[in-house]
Amino acid sequence: MEQNKKGNKHLHEWDRKFLQTDQQLKGLMLHMGEAFRVSVDECVNEPVLLSKPWGFSFKDIPVPIDVWHGERDRMAPAAEMKKAAATIPNCHIHFIPEAGHFLTDDDQIWDDILTTILEWAKENPSNSLSLVN
User: Fold this and answer.
1) Which DSSP string do the residues of 1-47 spell out, in sequence order?
2) Who contacts 110 (Cβ-Cβ below 8 Å, separation ≥6)?
3) 52-72: per-residue pLDDT in tens?
4) Taking a C-beta distance cutoff of 8 angstroms, is the pair 5, 19 a contact?
5) What pTM, to 2 d.p., does this model score?
6) Which of 54, 73, 82, 130 could pair with 101 in a Cys bridge, judged by C-beta atoms 3.0 to 4.6 Å apart?
């Protein structure tokens, strides 16, 4: 565990702060273990999928989309997400200036994401699950 706390130099400092406690690292290891449970093939498949056409155009997405992304994300650069989001007609973008990749590990950002989803569901009850009222 100690080695993992010192590693991850490829991540922005904002992300590394979420990998400093044993609990955080155990969570990461659990996540990674589940991701690779069946095989490591997805390490190859995901980049291949991302480099090919998906069979639809972002401009044809008819539903509202909210995108949250850290400006300092080194794993999925914000510049690419800005390009993609600009092509989605009803896209609400939430770029977090000093944040990296692990947005949901920040309690305030996670709360903001969930609050936005809940508010949308309350304002659009015909498009929401019946459990949200």
Assistant:
1) -HHHHH--TTS-HHHHGGG-SHHHHHHHHHHHHHHTSS-STHHHHHH
2) 103, 104
3) 898 999 999 998 899 999 999
4) yes
5) 0.72
6) 73
* Residues 23-57 pLDDT 10s: 888 887 887 788 778 777 877 887 888 888 989 99
Cα(108)–Cα(119) distance, integer angstroms: 16
- Residue that is written with structure tokens 């200036």 in the block: 97
Between the alpha carbon of residue 28 and those of residues 5, 22, 87, the distances in Å are 11, 10, 33
Report DSSP state, residue 67: E
Both tokens of residue 10? 């490829």
pLDDT of residue 132: 47
Q: Which residue has the tokens 């977090």?
A: 96
Cα distance between the two ends of the chain: 43
From residue 105, how far is each of 18, 42, 102 by CA, in Å?
7, 23, 6
